[in-house]
Amino acid sequence: MTEQAKPLVGVIMGSSSDWDVMQHAVAILKQFGVPFEASVISAHRMPDEMFTYAETARARGLRAIIAGAGGAAHLPGMVAAKTIVPVLGVPVPSKYLRGEDSLLSIVQMPKGVPVATFAIGEAGAANAALTAVALLAANDEDLAQRLVAFRTEQTAAAQAMTLPV
Ligand code: RP5
């Protein structure tokens, strides 16, 4: 799926089965009007495509790559190995270990090739996208103001919370 002619953020995932989680990253990028592309790139089923994607990412204009995978989740780390574009890793819940395996696979990168790793599941996917927005906002004041407004809305919602006591 390609959403814009010139995407700034790439959203990749190891399988279409990751979409339920990764759609939350895409929803944030849409909400903020950030041009993005989204596709299935599997580390173990499509290794050549994975390397080509990573090797061409910077020249194609990508400024961040959000990579989600489950199980023995090599995708974010291997993509990070082939590009200096920041890689934001999202651990996808797995069938047997609930994503703890995904989290440890992604977060525990050896020193020198970082993957910024987020929470397991949809919160992680959304926060990875919000981080991509924040990275882009450093050079885009309109986007920065939309991010400030997003935070302000959350503050107002919390302030309006009541308890049943
Ligand atoms: C990983 O294996 C994917 O990221 C997915 O989370 C997991 C299972 O993939 P499917 O067997 O559902 O295609 O590569």
UniProtKB/TrEMBL annotation:
Q: Which GO terms describe its biological process?
A: 'de novo' IMP biosynthetic process
PurE domain location is: 7-158
Q: Which family does it belong to?
A: Belongs to the AIR carboxylase family. Class I subfamily.
Q: Which NCBIfam families match?
A: purE
**Positions bound to substrate:** S15, D18, R45
Q: Does the keyword Isomerase apply?
A: yes
Q: Which Pfam families would you find in this protein's record?
A: AIRC (PF00731)
EC top class, as a word: isomerase
**This protein's superkingdom?**
Bacteria
InterPro entries xref list: PurE_ClassI, PurE_dom, PurE_prokaryotes
Say which species the protein is native to: Massilia yuzhufengensis
Instruction: Write out the pathway annotation from the protein's UniProt entry.
Output: Purine metabolism; IMP biosynthesis via de novo pathway; 5-amino-1-(5-phospho-D-ribosyl)imidazole-4-carboxylate from 5-amino-1-(5-phospho-D-ribosyl)imidazole (N5-CAIR route): step 2/2
Q: What does this protein do?
A: Catalyzes the conversion of N5-carboxyaminoimidazole ribonucleotide (N5-CAIR) to 4-carboxy-5-aminoimidazole ribonucleotide (CAIR).
* Protein name per its UniProtKB record: N5-carboxyaminoimidazole ribonucleotide mutase
